[in-house]
Structure formats: C-alpha cells, structure tokens
C-alpha cells in the first residue's frame, strides 16, 4: 500500500502554481520572506510548512490559501484513487 503524504501534494501544488506564474524559486523566496532552501524543500515535499509560511508563500504567488488547500485536497483524492487496491480477479477453470 502506498503512503499518501500531504506534504508531497502541497509541494507539487506550490511548484505547479509557481511555474504557472512564471516565477523562480528566488522570486517567491524574496516575496514570501521564506528562505530559498526551505522553499525548495517544501516544493520537493521534504518539509511540512506551517500555516503562516504557507500563507506567505501563497500571497507571494498571488493566490489564496483556501484555493491552494482545495487544489491539494483534489490532488490527495487523486492519489487515493491511484493507491486504492484493485479487485482481485479469479481465473475460472473451463
């Protein structure tokens, strides 16, 4: 069974939004006042950010925190679907 990590979904979502905004890690780092290294770790899903840090990053990206949380929720739902065990098929002898 695959473990679903919210920090991974959050990182992927933030990276997607940053790239869509045409911003570099450095630009988001400066605008959010989050260190470049820490921001990179968040995007890679290595670190879990506090709500304050997430709020700062989302403001720097020009999106609401609630919108990002909705996107993360959708991504987690997709991960759950992909990780769901598939029904076993039993071969019948003829």
What features would you describe in this structure?
Helix 1 packs across helix 5 (65-83) and helix 2 (25-32) crosses helix 4. This protein has helices at residues 6-20, 25-32, 36-43, 51-61, 65-83. The chain has 94 residues and is mostly helical.
Secondary-structure blueprint of this entry?
Blueprint: H1 6-20, H2 25-32, H3 36-43, H4 51-61, H5 65-83
Helix pairs in contact: 1-5, 2-4
Largest sheet: none
Assess the beta-strand content as a share of residues: under 5%
Number of strands: 0
Integer average pLDDT: 92
**Rg value:** 17 Å
Distance between the termini: 33 Å
Keywords:
94 residues; 0% strand; single chain; mainly alpha
In brief:
It is built from 5 helices and no strands. With 94 residues, the chain is mainly alpha-helical.
